[in-house]
Amino acid sequence: MNIHEVNGKHESVQNFCELGKDAQELINAAIEARKFSYSPYSKFKVGAAIRVGDGSIISGCNVENAAYSPSICAERTAACKAISTGHSEFKAAAVVAFQQDSFTTPCGVCRQVLSEFAKEDIPIYVAKPSPVRVLVTSIKSLLPHSFVPLPTD
Ligand code: THU
User: Fold this and answer.
1) Residue-range domains of the chain with CATH
2) Nearest ligand 1 atom, CA 74
3) DSSP string spanning 53-98?
């Protein structure tokens, strides 16, 4: 394991094969979901997967639209699938996309959405489709000082 500072925060870049089985499974689910990406406009395919409270995995891909603004990121597709099927506790998430020279981390809006359903700091795995190297970070590292969920009954 190669822990070092990434962008001034304590995150790590690890080899896929060094990760635990659960993390590998989550990343593989995001890789599979990415295959369904509907992204004819950006041509940028993204897959995401969320480990929810009961241990199951719910995945999603980005879905774009000709009118552009109705497009939704992979992370929020997965989050909406989870919430709308009764899974409101997120334990970990993985995001898979391909940028040659950098990791594709979740956008700001997706960070806020993931944060809403993470009771504590949860790991976020950021990988490429052939995930030799994986950025292992966390929701609080990605979004410190998030707007906190309002009390619900
Ligand atoms: N996208 C995601 O699905 N997740 C991210 O974390 C970053 C961006 C999508 C949105 C759009 O369909 C495409 O990638 C290009 O921005």
Assistant:
1) 2-141 (3.40.140.10)
2) 3
3) TTS-EEEEE-B--TTSTT-B-HHHHHHHHHHHTT---EEEEEEE--
**CA-62 nearest atom, ligand 1:** 3
What angle in degrees, to the nearest 10, is found between the helix axes of 74-84 and 108-116? 20
Pull the structure tokens for residue 153.
Answer: 């009954």
> 11 CB less than 6 Å from ligand 1?
no
3-state secondary structure of 9: strand
pLDDT digits (tens, 9 = 90+) for 19-69: 999 999 999 999 999 999 999 999 999 999 999 999 999 999 999 999 999
Residue 64 half-sphere exposure toward CB, CA atoms < 13 A: 12
Query: Which protein residue has the closest C-alpha to ligand 1 atom 6?
Result: 106
C-alpha distances out from residue 24 to 3, 107, 145, Å: 18, 22, 29
- CA-nearest residue, atom 9 of ligand 1: 73
